[in-house]
Amino acid sequence: MSDKSKALFISFVLIGALGLLYLYFFSFKNEGPGRMVETGPRIGEAAPDFRLSALGGKSVSLSDYKGKVVFLNIWASWCPPCREEMPSMEALYNKLKGMPFEMIAVSIDQSGEETVGSFAAQFGLTFPVLLDPESKTYRLYGLTGVPETFIVDKNGVIIQKIIGPQDWMNKQWLNYFDHIIR
Question: What H or E segment, with its residue span, contains residue 66?
């Protein structure tokens, strides 16, 4: 094996090990020898409250929307699946405007408002976009990656957790939101 091949192999092994360590420290807690349990709230539990700055500087908390169904999406601009689902999120937000519904997109981009604002403008996002460069919500909600979406009922209870991108304008999702909002 050449020196270049060895260096490449070692790099891949180190990147993989760092990825596993990241998942261990940020997504799971140790529950005894050899047992790992996902952290964060579960379906049927109260959604943890948080307060973050929105694009433009306004401070927003999840509890501000009590009495509404909340679509809470945690994402990043560098994430291709996040980019994939943003247009259907915007379409869903516009369809449900005026109902007891709110959509909140929490960006975990470390680069801050300039990057996230540019992304929101590029996609024409009109729903609240919050900034979380320290990934507090990522840890608070026990995420394993992005995007992840939590549906919170009018009483602040998590009723759905969706991992990965969705077509939110899909008939099943539209029927689901129609049912839980009414």
Answer: none
